[in-house]
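Tokens in:
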């Protein structure tokens, strides 16, 4: 099997999310469209992804030094968001 490498689009940008995230409102028990199965699946993913996501982000961060300027900025944007995602996952796990 061979992989096809495509160039990164010139207009691609990674923008970190707003850290406030709108968590002031209460989250309904069946938050994914009121569907039990969808809520359960996404809750399970939310509980298991933080460790894998942290590993991925640290792996990407290791390549920032020496990267072309545009790629270094994209890596910086990507690596600035994980504490927010982990915090949100932890909050959801406690609810």
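Residues out:
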């Amino acid at each position: 099997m061979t992989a096809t490498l495509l160039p990164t689009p010139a207009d691609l940008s990674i923008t970190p999310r707003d850290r406030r995230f709108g968590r002031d409102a209460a989250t309904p028990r069946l938050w994914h469209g009121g569907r039990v199965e969808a809520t359960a699946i996404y809750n399970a993913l939310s509980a298991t992804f933080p460790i894998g996501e942290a590993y991925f982000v640290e792996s990407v961060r290791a390549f920032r030094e020496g990267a072309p300027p545009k790629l270094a900025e994209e890596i910086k944007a990507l690596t600035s968001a994980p504490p927010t995602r982990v915090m949100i996952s932890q909050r959801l796990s406690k609810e």
